[in-house]
Amino acid sequence: MKRRRRISYAKYGYIFSIPFVLTFLIFSLYPTLYTAFIGFTDLKGLLKTSFSVLEDPFQNFRLILNNASFKLSLANTLKIWVMNFIPQILLALLLTAWFTSNHNKIKGQGLFKVVFYLPNIITAATIAILFNVLFGYPMGPINDILVKTGALSQPYYFLTDKTASQVIVAFIQFWMWYGYTMIILISGVLGINPEIFEAADIDGANDVQTFFLITLPNLRTILLFVLITSMIGGLNMFDIPRLFNLGQPGNATLTTSLFIYNQAFSGSYLYNRAAAASMIVFAIIAVFSLLIFLLMRDKNLAREKKEARQLARQLKQGNFLKKGGGQ
Amino acid sequence: MMKKTLSLLVALSLLMSLGLPALAGEKQTINLWSFTDEVPTMVEKYLEFNPDFAAKYDVKVTIIATTDGAYQPALDQALAAGGADAPDIYAAEAAFVLKYTQGDASSFAAPYKDLGIDLSALETADIAQYTVDIGTNPEGNLVALGYQATGGAFIYRRSIAQEVFGTDDPTEIGARIGPGWDKFFEAAAELKAKGYGIVSGDGDVWHAVENSSEAGWVVDGKLNLDPNREAFLDISMQLKEEDFYNDTQDWTDAWFADMKGEGAKGVFGYFGPAWLINYVMADNSGGSAPGEGTYGDWAVCEPPVGFFWGGTWVLANAASEKKEAVGEIINWITLDASEEGLQYHWANGTLHGEGGTKDSVASGAVMAKSDGSLEFLGGQNMFDVFVPANAFANGKNLTQYDETINRFWRDSVRMYTSGQISREEAVEQFKQNVADNLDVIVE
């Protein structure tokens, strides 16, 4: 029976994706490769007339890895990110549990979600400068409140205190992103099959048990997403530290992105060193992402897939034997 | 039918809007880049005063503020890119002007003599030497001049002076607080005894300290910590330990509050040039007429150590095709010492009609024939103090990295005075920052 030839619309898919692919190639891939290339040259200074590949190609990379400020910036970035992420995820999970609970229907959920998400919408620049002014010394809102209520006898210079500055930057990041994380987690929970919850309810599980034994395991993929995007965002933290206090005091809030920016634009235009540092940070982020993927993979699923593949291979070999050697 | 005619009309009108400006005339465009609206306003006025010039030229203005260091990268890109949109005239502030006159970007600047400007005016207009020094490129050609003179003086409160020193006369007060830092601290002790601070924060004395050094931050590619500048650590600490000030950071709320006298204790004075008086203190004195707030209660006198702070230099692009026009504008702004020149208007505050803000200008000749008396200063003529002050300013100990290096230095000093780190750690931290971020050798 003659089969009607189905018209393939596949080529239109390719055609429609050409604009994106072109844009990506020109504006994302080419600059990334060019940056990687610059890391091996001596390109620096304002007037980039010509540059050449260094005799010792890895000189810039070695310089950066030995650079005390770079190592400090890595440590700072990790420290500030951890200080920001742990409270953020805990608060987001707590709010998610409350908002998706089957037993307590909270009124005005829509309003709460909007209010919690609001800090994310305000520009980072505004918030950073706002917090800088809030902690002003010797006169500033925070100092005034603390002195008037008697918590402090004298105003405290928060902006020269390294730990205080790091905590403030971590707090700003936490405050800006917990709403976003909460929204993502809620949408993840809404995607879980409600029959599972009903079954658990019938079996007599209370809220806490439901949350830890059903919701969390099923949220694995979403949590992975949140973890990875937060980590990439955290390792790239730039706008808040720069606008809050330019990475000061004493480089306590210097993050890797801010370090790279300073290399390129604080007066000496050391593009080659900045490019080398960018590539190093890129490698670090890639390694971390892979690690997280590995840790968070569904081990059962991975084992099943492996077994299925082995079975298929044995079957094929078995067939071959049957076909080929029958004698 | 209706739809077709309508769409035809719309298409035609769109085409016309494209075509009309081209038909409007053969005006050439001069691209002007600045970081405040000061220079653009001046150029606007020039077009007003010279209609035949305005008939031939249009000025396209790009203003990018220097907050967060946004101006320099944009200007550098525009200069390097060249072409029709490249700046013909651009302004540079004192914090980074050296990069554009003597440093990495100096090849973009056109020597004034190539613009048809008569440089003998430097003598006749009595232009302050430090602004010429800064504006001269390594080949010895003048490429930039400022219109303001920002030589600094000590600006003090008359009422506090009367109470503590028994007089508010500028010459006498000048002799009480200087010359030299030792006399300054003696006066500070007298003020402290009566419960006043001598300055608001350490930033106030920094500019005087910075300008008093023998050499700049970088000598022969190496970091040079001049002893006069290193002394800032000790000066700052002395101010803090003996509580001679209110420990504010300049340009923060607390610093402005001290101008109104609303800080922890009354503050005797500020170090600053004329623009600090007219553009900062006048607005923050808690009033706009004598008797309101601290308005009218101020005077200026010679500072213990001479310095200058800030200022804007005007440069022309060497690749510009409108050199004559650009030369005319720049000459009017920087060298014209007549009563039609910009400097005369600027000094007397008559650029927008009578009663505008006065300011000290680069031309000593103009200031000599101008009236710099201010109500804010209780009627004192500020030019009497600022003309000699401009002669003290040193334009030879600056580098193009100063903006960044100064930031590192002041941050370290601030951490030292607030007790977070020791003196050695502060110097170490400063040197580490310079070595890590700049192409400067640090020993």
General description of the model:
The complex is a heterodimer of chains A (327) and B (443). The model of chain A has no long low-confidence stretch (mean pLDDT 88). In chain A, helix 4 (109-121) crosses helix 7. Chain A contains 14 helices and no strands. Chain A is globular and about 80 Å long. By secondary structure, chain A is mostly helical. Chain B is globular and about 90 Å long. In chain B, 45% of the residues lie in helices and 12% in strands. Chain B has 443 residues and is α/β, with parallel strands linked by helices. Chain B folds into 2 domains: 17-149 and 311-368, Periplasmic binding protein-like II (D-Maltodextrin-Binding Protein, domain 2); 153-308 and 372-437, Periplasmic binding protein-like II (D-Maltodextrin-Binding Protein, domain 2, 3-Layer(aba) Sandwich). The interface between A and B is large, with 35 and 40 residues.
Topology:
The complex is a heterodimer of chains A (327) and B (443).
Chain A: H1 10-38, H2 59-66, H3 68-99, H4 109-121, H5 124-134, H6 141-148, H7 162-190, H8 194-202, H9 207-218, H10 220-235, H11 239-245, H12 256-265, H13 271-296, H14 299-324
Helix pairs in contact in A: 1-13, 2-13, 3-7, 3-10, 4-7, 5-11, 10-13, 12-13
Chain B: H1 2-23, E1 28-34, H2 38-49, H3 51-56, E2 57-63, H4 71-81, E3 89-93, H5 97-101, H6 121-124, H7 129-134, E4 144-146, E5 153-157, H8 158-165, H9 170-177, H10 181-193, E6 199-201, H11 202-211, E7 218-219, E8 222-223, H12 227-241, E9 245-248, H13 253-260, E10 269-272, H14 274-281, E11 298-301, E12 312-316, H15 323-334, H16 342-348, H17 364-368, H18 383-392, H19 402-417, H20 423-437
Parallel strand pairs in B: 1-2, 1-3, 6-9
Antiparallel strand pairs in B: 3-12, 4-12, 5-10, 5-11, 7-8
Helix pairs in contact in B: 11-12, 12-19, 19-20
